[in-house]
């Protein structure tokens, strides 16, 4: 977007980097950002035995390409003296201290936010906060604009406010990178910093405010009140309606006029004044407030939806001017009700139901509240299964390996239909595959549900062989087994840590385990192995009420060009009792059924979804 929009992105390339790897099978002492003579080392062993190591060698330049594990092990050896080369790397990468910022955050209808607007070293957790706060700052302003309630200049204030904050955070990150990754020459500065921080509460508060972003003060208009432009402090508030906190008051996405305990006549006057803005600004009358807001001269505050105070009564400035500046003039009383804040624009059709909604109603939301992972769901049957599970209400992780665009499209389709989904990338059949997949899966689940619980696992990803017996090399054989059979086993093993009782595992096998095709012997062997998973795991998982079953498709349409040749399709169709080839949805419906509570009594079974191909 930034490149297409022609935004300049000035700044500096990386001059230092940290190498990072998750390694199994090593035993090194835990280290928290330990400065050694030759560099900086971090090691943290997790309960599953995997150790994350991070290392920087003083004076080393970034290598340009992503490192291999040998680079990490060599650097680790030089910095710590320890040999980790015998470990198994599950994940390797590096990050540098490049520092760049777009010169402007807005160009007409294009806006940059988060990492599109700035690039920085991911240390200190500041970039995450910076990106989120960009989004919060822009979000309510865009919503106001969409509602045609955005006052002139409101959208421009996004660049004005956030660009300056970005500049300061990038500066702070560069200072931290220098203190963290600088060699012996930064020691004197580190010592001065340590003395300052240890000896002065003011220094500590300053650094904490800077790093947390809590000290941000926007230029929001005239006045001298200490809270003007700052975030509303966190405080307990008892109102005429409930006991709450200052931050909870912001959850509606509206502005807040907070009338603090004091002069009742004045409070009534302000309430009446703000009444025409009632749909955009929630007036709250506090009967008591805790420390933080209890300053005697605070009176009343006007707070924007992003939590920043834009007006204080004790400044003696006009409330109506502040309301007009941030929330536009109130709608005239024409008899037509104003658009509700932050809902669909008034031009949106309200009577005709969206087709997607209609679609959803044909299903029964039998999986609402459940989470699902469908491997290989960027295309084919996996895609159809992901769409189907989402229609039933599940939050779906759409897994892929190469075809990111296709996976994104699946998520977009699901979201258009009112469902929830996110993508997860991992190549299966290579060392560290399960680990990488679960890193993405757990972070996606945690972000959306607050937990990493996984209710449904569909082992669908697979590769076909298409080689004659005499042409099957040991490498091809190993690859087929690694993707089709080994990966599902270890995915199940890992998923069981996240799966609650009553979970569901569905493995896609193949009709080729029951009828012959000499070009697919090795492939059929892998699927025969997958069939065994249902049988034996079913017994093992019965006590946890987890079911596991095999679904065996017959010839089913996918992206293979053969499905574009009518004669070939006709010939393949004759194998089915219904005289047609399978569609991905035919199989997806079976998968969805097995995932529901209605299939609770089916486990360890082989479900023939070949459209009667196995009838002979
Ligand atoms: P497909 O259209 O070929 O799609 C394969 C999916 O698996 C894609 O999402 C692909 O991701 C992913 N994938 C492939 N190799 C991977 C790897 N090494 N690591 C991670 N992901 C990988 O699949 P399909 O034809 O619908 O088949 C789905 C399942 O049904 C497979 O297990 C297959 O063996 C089985 N099956 C198929 C048929 C049939 O006629 N189609 C018949 C019987 C059984 P990218 O998009 O990123 O490449």
Secondary-structure blueprint of this entry?
Blueprint: E1 11-12, E2 17-24, E3 31-35, E4 39-45, E5 51-57, H1 69-80, E6 88-96, E7 99-101, E8 106-107, E9 110-111, E10 118-119, H2 126-146, H3 156-181, H4 187-199, H5 201-212, E11 236-239, E12 243-245, E13 255-259, H6 264-274, E14 281-289, E15 300-303, E16 309-312, H7 319-327, H8 355-361, E17 371-374, H9 380-391, E18 395-400, H10 404-416, E19 420-425, H11 433-449, E20 456-459, H12 474-495, E21 504-508, H13 521-541, E22 547-553, H14 566-573, H15 584-595, E23 606-609
Parallel strand pairs: 13-14, 17-18, 17-20, 18-19, 20-21, 21-22, 22-23
Antiparallel strand pairs: 1-7, 2-5, 2-6, 3-4, 4-5, 7-10, 8-9, 11-12, 11-14, 13-15, 15-16
Helix pairs in contact: 2-3, 4-5, 9-10, 9-15, 12-13
The site of NADP nicotinamide-adenine-dinucleotide phosphate has 28 residues, from α9.
Tell me about this structure.
- The chain is of the alpha/beta class.
- The chain has 4 domains: 80 residues, Alpha-Beta Plaits; 112 residues, 3-Layer(bba) Sandwich (FAD/NAD(P)-binding domain); 99 residues, Glutaredoxin (3-Layer(aba) Sandwich), CATH 3.40.30.120; 246 residues, 3-Layer(aba) Sandwich (Rossmann fold), CATH 3.40.50.
- It is built from 15 helices and 23 strands.
- A 7-stranded parallel β-sheet has the order 19-18-17-20-21-22-23, sandwiched between helices.
- Helix 12 links the parallel strand 20 and strand 21.
- The longest helix is centred in the first third of the chain and has 26 residues.
- The two termini are 55 Å apart.
- The protein binds NADP nicotinamide-adenine-dinucleotide phosphate.
- The site of NADP nicotinamide-adenine-dinucleotide phosphate has 28 residues, from helix 9.
């Amino acid at each position: 977007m930034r490149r297409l929009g022609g935004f300049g992105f000035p700044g500096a390339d990386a001059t230092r980097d940290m190498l990072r790897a998750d390694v199994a099978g090593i035993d090194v002492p835990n280290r928290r950002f330990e400065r050694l003579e030759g560099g900086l080392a971090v090691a943290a062993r997790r309960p599953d035995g995997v150790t994350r190591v991070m290392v920087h060698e003083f004076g080393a330049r970034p290598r340009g390409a992503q490192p291999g594990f040998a680079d990490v092990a060599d650097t680790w050896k030089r910095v710590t003296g320890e040999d980790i080369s015998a470990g198994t790397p599950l994940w390797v990468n590096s990050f540098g201290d490049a520092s760049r910022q777009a010169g402007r955050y807005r160009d007409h209808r294009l806006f940059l936010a988060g990492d599109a607007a700035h690039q920085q070293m991911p240390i200190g957790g500041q970039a995450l906060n910076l990106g989120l706060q960009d989004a919060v700052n822009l979000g309510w302003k865009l919503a106001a604009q969409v509602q045609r309630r955005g006052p002139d200049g409101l959208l421009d204030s996004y660049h004005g406010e956030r660009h300056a904050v970005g500049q300061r955070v990038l500066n702070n990150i560069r200072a931290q990178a220098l203190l963290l990754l600088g060699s012996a020459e930064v020691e004197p500065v580190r010592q001065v910093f340590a003395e300052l921080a240890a000896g002065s509460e003011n220094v500590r508060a300053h650094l904490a405010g800077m790093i947390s972003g809590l000290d941000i003060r926007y230029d929001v208009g005239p006045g001298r009140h200490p809270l003007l432009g700052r975030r509303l402090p966190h405080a307990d508030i008892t109102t005429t309606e409930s006991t709450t906190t200052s931050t909870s008051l912001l959850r509606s996405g509206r502005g807040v006029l907070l009338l603090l305990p004091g002069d009742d006549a004045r409070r009534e006057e302000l309430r009446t004044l703000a009444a025409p803005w009632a749909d955009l600004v929630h007036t709250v009358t506090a009967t008591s407030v805790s420390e933080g807001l209890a300053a005697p001269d605070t009176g009343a505050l006007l707070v924007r939806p992003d939590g920043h105070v834009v007006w204080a009564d004790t400044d003696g400035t006009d409330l109506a001017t502040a309301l007009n500046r941030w929330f536009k003039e109130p709608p005239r009383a024409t008899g037509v009700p104003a658009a509700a804040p932050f809902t669909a624009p008034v031009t949106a059709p309200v009577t005709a139901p969206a087709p997607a909604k209609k679609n959803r109603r044909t299903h029964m939301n039998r999986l609402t509240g459940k989470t699902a992972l469908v491997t290989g769901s960027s295309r084919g049957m996996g895609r159809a299964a992901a769409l189907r599970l989402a229609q039933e209400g599940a939050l779906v992780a759409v897994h892929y390996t190469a075809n990111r665009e296709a996976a994104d499209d699946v998520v977009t389709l699901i979201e258009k239909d009112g469902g929830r989904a996110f993508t997860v990338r991992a190549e299966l059949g290579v060392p560290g595959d399960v680990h990488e997949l679960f890193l993405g899966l757990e972070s996606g689940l945690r972000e959306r549900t607050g937990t990493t619980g996984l209710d449904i696992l569909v082992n669908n990803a697979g590769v076909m062989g298409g080689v004659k017996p005499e042409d099957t090399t040991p490498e091809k054989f190993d690859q087929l087994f690694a993707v089709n059979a080994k990966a599902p086993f270890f995915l199940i093993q890992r998923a069981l840590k996240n799966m609650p009782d009553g979970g569901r595992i569905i493995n896609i096998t193949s009709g080729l385990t029951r009828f012959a095709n000499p070009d697919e012997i090795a492939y059929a062997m892998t699927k025969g192995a997958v069939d065994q998973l249902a049988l034996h795991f079913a017994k093992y998982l019965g006590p946890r009420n987890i079911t596991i079953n095999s679904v065996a498709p017959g010839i089913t349409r996918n992206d293979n060009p053969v499905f574009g040749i009518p004669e070939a399709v006709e010939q393949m169709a004759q194998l089915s009792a219904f005289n047609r080839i399978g569609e991905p949805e035919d199989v997806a419906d079976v998968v969805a059924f097995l995932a529901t509570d209605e299939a609770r009594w089916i486990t360890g079974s082989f479900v023939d979804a070949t459209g009667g191909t196995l009838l002979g």
